[in-house]
Structures are given as C-alpha cells and as structure tokens.
Specification:
mainly beta, Neuraminidase, six-stranded antiparallel sheet, five-stranded mixed sheet, 34% strand, globular
C-alpha cells in the first residue's frame, strides 16, 4: 500500500473515532423492545445526538467508534490484563497466490453492505443508503427494492443487512434490518417478492428495537441450517456500554437472537423456537441465542459444519472473532476480546464466558469486519478457513485450525475499506469495499 494511502485511511479513521467518541453524551432513551405490527404506531421521542456526533455520511456502518482510552475509560480500565490471547498472526506465506478481480466490470459502489446469490442466477447487492439491486451475468441491473426514503442513512445507521428466506421458492420473502427515519430504532422487516421486484407497500415489521444511541446497531440477518432466523444486535452504542446491555439478559441489545419467522403474521410476527437455549430461564429474554456482544457487525454460518462465526468489534484495544455458543456469554463489557476491560474482580468472577478464537490489537487495525468460511473450489488451500478483515487497515486474514489450535495468516493488505463479505453461487468469496469496486478472490495465474 502506498504511504499516501495509509495516511489517508489513518486520517479518516482518526476523524471517525473522534466523531463517535464525543465528549457530551446524548440524553438516554428507555430501551424496551417493541414488537411492532403497524408502521403507523406511535414512535419514540426524537433522539438527542451528542454535540460531537454530526451526520457523518462517510462513516461506515462497519463500526469506527473507538476512542482514546485515556479519555473514555476510568484508570482501572487502562490497566487491562490479558486473560486469553487468542490466535496469533502467522507470517508464513500462503500456499497459493491470490488475486482480486473486480466484479461487475469494475462498477464502483458507494457503501455496499451485503452480496448474496439471487435464486435463478445473478447476485443481490444491498447498499447502506437503502438500495437493493440485482446484477446479472449479461450485464443487466434491476432494482429489487429501494428503501432510501425510509432509511436513516447517517454514520452507523442505514440499511444494515438483508437475507432471503431459505425456502425462497415456496416463501419468496426478503428480510431487511435497517434504521427507520421515523424512529430511534432498528427494524427487522419482511417484504414479499414477485419476480425480481419486492413490494415496499407490503412491509411486515417483525421486530423493532428502540436504540439509545446512533451507533452499535449491529448486525447481520442470517438463516441457519435449521431454518431459524439469527440476528446480531449491538449493545446500543456510546462507549463502555454505559447501560450494561452486554451482560443484561433482559434486553436483546448486545446479543444474537434466534427466532422462527416461517409463519410470520401481523398477529404473530415471530415465534420462539422450542429449543432456544435460554427458553424458560427466569428474567431472560427467550429470543437470546448468545450474549455479551459489543457490536457483532458480520456473522456467517459455515456451509459445511453449521457453526455460526461472528466478528465482534472492539473498543480501544482488541478486535475479536469467534463462534457463537448457544446460551453462551461472550464477555462484553467485562472483557474486550481476550483482555479484562473492567476491574480484575469483575473478570475473575466471570469464569464461564466464551473467549474468542482469535484477536488482534489496534497496531494492526481498528475495526474487525467479520467474514465467511471458505468452501469454494478455486482456492483449495483455503478450504475450511475463516476469512475476515479489518476495515481501517485493509488487512485480510485467514483463521485456520492447525496443530491443535487456531492460527491467523495474513493474506493481503489492500488499499481499501473492507466493510463486508459475500459469497456467490459457486461459493467464491467477494470483498465489499466502500467507494470502490466489489472484489472477487481468485487464484493468481501460474507464474503471475
């Protein structure tokens, strides 16, 4: 990467971190969950923004709110102790060479956040501003759904994730997780699809969560191999998790939830699966699959094994990736990655949390972009590896299980902001970059 490119990214990241940090805290909003069926229901009061939180159109939803630890944390938090180091970066060269092929003839995107196969051919691409379009091999482009007039596109808010019903032929529905302009909230909605057009007038609101702040809204909508819908939700924002949502199982904030939407209706937008791990536990939301998350920006199921991989964005020091454990506590805000974030006594008392499989410090980046497990055919030396990246530094890693442990291997460092990953019909991986082309991972030609 050229020195000028590094300086530019550093400047951008620094500006964004300062903007998200903010010396003045916004007024706090109540945090109840609202299962909304009608868009016309009363909305929460307008959210007050921090004086240092302008409308940052250029800030990624992929989380850039880390602050100066000396400003954001009490003294005891500045003396954190390493409890679980996770996988270390592996400098060995990869067995094969990668090249990054520009998809869609090099078409540039502003802020793409999802790419997935479209049934029958072509790829779906969703952008944070609110547009969802289909791109076909013959070069044709068709708009599937435009929510730009409904989406609050600002900073980490916007259209954040989409998913198709796993039985799309029988249930042709598109699910969208977005920030509505009409509320200080994030909303999970279902839209019916006919042909290559989703109907915006037949929106069914599955779930809406009031948000106390404008960052850490998550997340990713994913259907598991069991047909259930999984949704990663951030801790509600600001810094240090001021409301304690990460360790509060009475809220859905700071958690991954698992719900059944197969028979969703206005009367019953979702049901609780009978085998949810915390169903029946007093004082616990039964939707919760795993908790102790800060901002699980991207999740992905391994097509081969079914494990749910998560990239959880850190605050000041540590970024982490791991596998979501059913009914498991992943530690935030007592731990940040593998390090003690609060007092030693708090960390010692939490002896049953799930440590990450890999971590890296802010000398290598500042905001993890969770990725996917590679199960394609063009890069056999990466089969079974979990690929993930850092938004700020452009580093791309493979996390592989070798010699009885997990090892990180740096594959490349791009002069790009990698905000998300996508997989095509053949299982080949695409990198979604802000203000640039979408890049497909491919094997470099022999001798190239």
């Amino acid at each position: 990467m050229r020195a000028s490119g590094l300086l530019l990214i550093a400047a951008i990241c620094a500006a964004l971190l300062i903007a998200c940090g903010g010396a003045a805290e916004p007024a706090l909003q109540p945090e109840p969950t609202v299962q909304r069926q009608q868009a016309a229901e009363p909305q929460p009061e307008p959210q007050q923004q921090s004086a240092a939180e302008p409308n940052k159109v250029e800030q990624p939803a992929a989380e850039t709110d880390q602050q100066d630890a000396a400003d954001a944390q009490p003294a005891e938090q500045q003396q954190q102790q390493t409890r679980s180091a996770g996988a270390a970066a592996e400098p060995n060269p990869i067995p094969g060479a990668l090249e990054f092929v520009e998809a869609f003839d090099g078409l540039s995107f502003e802020q793409p956040i999802e790419l997935l196969p479209w049934p029958g051919g072509g790829l779906l691409v969703a952008e944070q501003r609110g547009g969802i379009s289909l791109y076909f091999d013959d070069g044709a482009i068709r708009g599937l759904l435009d929510l730009s007039e409904r989406v609050r596109f600002r900073g980490e808010e916007g259209l954040l994730s989409v998913a198709l019903d796993p039985q799309f032929a029988e249930r042709p529905y598109l699910y969208v997780w977005y920030s509505p302009r009409s509320a200080n909230a994030t909303r999970l909605s279902r839209f019916p699809v006919e042909g290559s057009q989703a109907d915006p007038d037949r929106e069914l609101i599955i779930l809406e969560l009031a948000q106390p702040f404008a960052n850490h809204n998550g997340g990713a909508v994913r259907f598991g191999p069991d047909g259930m819908l999984y949704l990663g939700i951030g801790d509600g924002g600001a810094a240090n998790d001021p409301h304690g949502h990460g360790q509060n199982r009475e809220t859905l904030l700071g958690a991954i939830i698992r719900i059944d939407v197969r028979d969703a209706s206005t009367a019953y937008p979702y049901r609780i699966p009978a085998d949810n791990p915390l169903l029946g536990v007093p004082g616990v939301r039964p939707e919760i699959f795993a908790w102790g998350m800060r901002n699980p920006w991207r999740m992905a199921f391994d097509p081969a094994g079914g494990a749910l991989w998560v990239g959880d964005v850190g605050q000041d020091r540590v970024e982490e990736v791991g596998i979501a454990a059913p009914g498991g506590n992943h530690g935030w805000n007592i731990f940040e990655g593998g390090e003690c974030f609060r007092r030693d006594d708090d960390c010692d008392a939490l002896d049953d949390h799930i440590p990450p499989l890999a971590t890296y410090g802010h000398d290598l980046g500042c905001s993890v972009t969770g990725g996917v497990v590679y199960r394609g055919s063009q890069l056999p030396w990466l089969d079974g590896a979990y690929l993930f990246a850092d938004f700020c530094s452009g580093r791309l890693w493979a996390l592989e299980q070798r010699d009885g442990g997990w090892q990180m291997r740096e594959l490349a460092q791009l002069d790009a902001q990698i905000a998300s990953f996508g997989v095509d019909h053949d299982g080949e991986v695409h990198l979604l970059t802000f203000r640039g082309p979408i890049l497909r991972l491919s094997a470099a030609p022999a001798g190239g």
